[in-house]
Design a protein that fits this description.
- The protein is of the alpha/beta class and 275 residues long.
- It has one domain: 3-Layer(aba) Sandwich (Rossmann fold).
- 35% of the residues lie in helices and 16% in strands.
- The chain has an eight-stranded mixed sheet with strand order 1-2-4-3-5-6-7-8, sandwiched between helices.
- Strand 7, helix 8 and strand 8 form a beta-alpha-beta unit.
- The longest helix has 15 residues.
- The relative contact order is 0.16.
Length: 275
Amino acid sequence: MPTFTAPDGTRLSYRSHGDGDPVVCLPGGPADSLYLGDLGGLSAHRRLIVLDLRGTGGSAIPEDTSSYRCDRLVEDVEALREHLGLPGMDLLGHSAGANLAIQYAARYPGRVGKLALITPGTRAVGIPITGEMRRELAQRRANEPWFPAAFAALEAITRGTGTDWEAINPFFYGRWDTEAHEHHAAAQPTNQEAVAVFGSDGAFDPEATRAALGACEAPVLVLAGEFDLNSPPPAMAELAALFPDARLVVQPGAGHYPWLDDADRFGAATAAFLG
């Protein structure tokens, strides 16, 4: 697995899938980037450069663990661009990794060619995801056999009286089948300190980030899953509106991992955007 050195000396790793012009991919979590796979075959269209965020996958644990904070990870992405010898790059971020991609675009707007935000997190720009928004979206799955137990757990979590997060996992997939079970297990973060520090105090400055995005002229794709409780389509529309040149695509029948729910549909939309 190839590696490079971050500005603070931490050794970071990345994986490469496919051929053609590169797209740097940032995973969510922070979790082992293996859960992204080759993004449902997107590597048939572009070369995917998938970064292992520090402290995950093949990347080293830093001496200063406060560097797990999202805003500080921006310089890791910039170091990867320099390592690859790219004057600019197309960037793809999934889930929490989209917060990192957004902050990179805010700090280095001239170095982003195209920006694909896949079922993105919104903390970097301060867009709230309300309990009522999630509740209304969840009710659209009422005919699923797992719905009663999952919805009861969601209601309890929303009220602040429950903590059974495992019970609501079906809401994050378009199909809660064997493949989804296996994917969920592989996508769980193992470095809990990295998860805790990622969004800690100082990680986000939504007002400043929103203002900076006005200078980001890169075309932006915001791809939402129709049923995704983490990144509901109404919030995704609000996110897309922050960019000068963005479009929202809502993938029918998809949850938080749209390349798993329908690889062909996901690949067609994302490849068409990236070119």
